[in-house]
Specification:
- The complex is a heterodimer of chains A (420) and B (197).
- With 420 residues, chain A is mainly α.
- Chain A has two domains: 3-52 and 166-419, Up-down Bundle (Fumarate Reductase Cytochrome B subunit); 57-118, no CATH class.
- Chain A is built from 15 helices and eight strands.
- In chain A, the strands form four sheets. A two-stranded antiparallel sheet of chain A has the order 1-4. Chain A has a two-stranded antiparallel sheet with strand order 2-3.
- In chain A, helix 6 runs parallel beside helix 12 (352-380) and helix 11 packs antiparallel against helix 12 (352-380).
- The longest helix of chain A is centred in the middle third of the chain and has 35 residues, at 165-199.
- In chain A, 33% of the residues are buried.
- Chain B has one domain (4-192): Alpha-Beta Plaits (2-Layer Sandwich), CATH 3.30.70.
- Chain B contains seven helices and six strands; from the N terminus they run βαββαββαααβαα.
- Chain B has helices at 18-27, 62-66, 92-96, 132-138, 150-154, 165-179, 188-192; strands at 4-8, 37-41, 49-53, 72-74, 80-82, 160-164.
- The radius of gyration of chain B is 17 Å and the shape is globular.
- Classes of the chains: A mainly alpha (420), B alpha+beta (197).
- Chains A and B meet through strand 1, helix 2, helix 4, helix 5 and strand 5 of A and strand 2, helix 2, helix 3, strand 6 and helix 6 of B.
Chain lengths: 420, 197
């Protein structure tokens, strides 16, 4: 039995979604916060920091016995002069020796002490100037192409010379997957919060009933919670791996490194229960989740979620929305498991090209799944009155069942009558 | 403005692997990893070419862009370095690298990769230049001493050139004019001029 279904609450009149004032105020606040986060994310897409810029400068701090300030332009220029002079020694031997006809060249300028490194913040101009070339250099360039030969070195991938696809991969992961994923996650949260603030919870229209109906067995619930807890673990650690730099770099590189390391291992620890859960759910719930004709009607009526009025579209044990969630979990989760295991064992059955695609698919599908399951968590908790108890105690309010799963309830009650 | 680059003259490289060997020796590179390697194309056929490849220290380096924990960073002379204290071994840099430069020791269980190692252009890492801690993690720091990478400086045929990009390109062009042929700067477009078409 559940505590909410007591007869004392039977006559409560909270049958309208708009009456859930506290929920709606809370949701409005959350919607506001998420709107700000969304705006920030959109700004991140267009703020033009997608290019790699140098963050550290080299400097010569003592030269010919004189001290030079670490941020002085001279320290930077001397670094360049020293290294450029040294480069000239690689010219032809008749120019730079060692050769019988030539004197041994001197070694140019050398720093008195080790050069130093210090942070800098005007790196953008370097990246810009580096990308420009003159006609002489242009004539030397070869079109980038995938080149694989052989190598006498016994290391995986040693035979690879060049794969320009890697630059596209970078766009895929850094510019598309992470931004798209963040938009999907924040956007889903924002839409749901706004929905809750405006519409309120989906109420049990007839009010609570004193009777409850058995909906999920203990085994079903254990499987569900094992999968969901490990999914949340995978999602949180995965978010660190996807956008950790944005979230944790403000707290320092050491914090970021520590959080990253925990996430790498945590991501792997949460994987076995998740994979087990996905398989168990697939076996357990697939028959009830096959698409049927009444799903179309349910979708056409928006699941009856938009309004308190009028009858809900009929559904069996699982309605079209739940079926969508189920197949997201099974197919999406399955894809995550397959790509994830592939990534855990580099080169065992996948080469670098396959691994690259597995990584991209893993990132994109993972972030979209997080977004989808925010919707699932919403409708199972704050979004709908009475829904949560199905998975918690296994029993649901009879009126809830009648409203959302009329065909299923009818069958159960018929069974009960026939049985007794 | 000095911009360090690597250029391997494929018409001169004889696949002696001295660059790979001297690199391993100079930096005490751990077992199972190699920061520079030699690739032979069309082996045994007409047009066979060998070419030494390592991290090219790219312009708009993709590895730096994808690193989720800010391990990789670039310096004002173009050299891309890494911080082994923050690396989590996710392998993103490896997928994003056009030249297969990042190496992973694969020392840990479950097939996770361990901490990334790659060519430093003989420029150490974030530790104090020339310190013991720097040497044990990243190897020698020749740049801080005003020297250039050992792989290029030992190259017996001067196929592998390292140093300021303009000087290196000039050396190569003079060479091509003198001998009358040259197959160009392999990998330069992908590495250094990604946005040019």
């Amino acid at each position: 039995m559940t505590d909410h279904a007591g007869p004392q609450k039977h006559d409560a009149v909270s049958h309208h979604g708009r009456d859930f004032k506290a929920y709606r105020i809370g949701a409005a606040i959350v919607a506001l916060i998420l709107a700000l986060a969304l705006a920030w994310q959109v700004f991140e897409i267009f703020d033009g920091d997608a290019r790699t810029v140098p963050e550290v400068r080299w400097g010569v701090t003592t030269y010919n016995g004189e001290d030079i300030g670490i941020q002085d332009t001279a320290s930077s220029l001397l670094t360049g002069t020293i290294l450029t002079d040294r480069t000239t020694f690689q010219a032809e031997r008749y120019q730079t020796g060692p050769s019988p006809e030539q004197n041994r060249p001197d070694y140019g300028v050398v720093p008195d002490t080790m050069m130093t490194n210090s942070p800098m913040d005007d790196g953008e101009k370097f990246t810009e100037s580096w990308a420009i070339f003159d006609d002489d250099t242009g004539a030397m360039l070869r079109e980038g192409q995938r080149i694989i030969g052989i190598s006498s070195l016994p290391y995986p991938n040693a035979e690879l010379f060049e794969r320009p696809f890697a630059r596209d991969w970078r766009l895929g992961i850094a510019d598309i997957a992470t931004h798209l994923g963040t938009l999907a996650i924040l956007g889903m949260g924002f839409i749901l919060a706004l929905f809750l603030a405006v519409r309120g919870r989906v109420p049990i229209a007839k009010g609570r009933s004193p009777r409850t109906v058995k909906r999920f067995t203990l085994f079903e619930r254990i499987t569900h919670w094992m999968t969901s807890v490990s999914f949340i673990g995978l999602a949180l650690t995965g978010i660190v791996l996807a956008v950790g730099k944005t979230l944790f770099l403000p707290f320092g590189e050491d914090v970021l490194g520590a959080v990253g390391w925990i996430s790498t291992w945590g991501h792997m620890m949460f994987f076995p229960p998740f994979a087990l859960g996905v398989v168990a759910m697939a076996v357990m719930w697939a028959p009830g989740n096959l698409p049927s004709k009444i799903d179309l009607n349910w979708i056409r009526k928006g699941g009856g979620m938009l309004s308190d009025e009028g009858p809900h579209p009929p559904a069996k044990k699982f309605n079209a929305g739940q079926k969508a969630i189920f197949w997201s979990a099974v197919l999406g989760g399955g894809l995550m498991v397959v790509t994830g295991v592939t990534l855990m064992f580099p080169y065992v059955w996948a080469d670098l090209g396959t691994l690259s695609w597995a990584m991209l698919i893993h990132a994109i599908v993972g972030l979209l799944l997080i977004s989808v399951f925010i919707g699932h968590v919403y409708i199972g908790t704050v979004g709908m009155e009475g829904a949560f108890w199905a998975m918690w105690s296994g029993r649901v309010d009879r009126n809830w069942a009648e409203q959302h799963h009329s065909i299923w309830l009818e069958r159960i009650e018929t069974h009960e009558r026939d049985g007794t | 403005m000095t911009r360090l680059k690597f250029l391997c003259d494929t018409d001169r490289c004889i696949e002696c692997n001295a660059c790979a060997t001297s690199c391993k020796n100079e930096h005490d590179v751990p077992w199972g990893m190699v920061r520079r390697r030699v690739v032979t194309i069309n082996d045994g056929e007409p047009g066979e070419k060998s070419i030494a490849i390592s991290c090219m220290h790219c312009t708009d380096a993709p590895c730096v862009a994808v690193c989720p924990v800010s391990t990789l960073y670039q310096t004002d002379i173009g050299v891309v370095l890494h911080d082994k204290d923050t690396c989590i071994g996710c392998g993103y840099c490896f997928y994003a690298c056009p030249f297969g430069a990042p190496q992973f020791p694969r020392a840990t269980q479950f097939g996770t990769r361990g901490i990334m190692d790659k060519c430093t252009y003989c420029a150490g890492g974030p530790e104090e230049n020339g310190s013991e801690a720097e040497y044990s993690k990243y190897g020698a720091n020749r740049i801080a001493e005003g020297k250039l990478p050992i792989c290029a400086e030992v190259c017996s045929t001067r196929a592998l050139l390292a140093g300021d990009g303009d000087v290196v390109a000039e050396i190569y062009r003079e060479r091509v004019v003198a001998r009358g042929f040259g197959s160009g700067a392999w990998g330069w477009k992908t590495a250094y001029y990604p946005e040019q078409s």
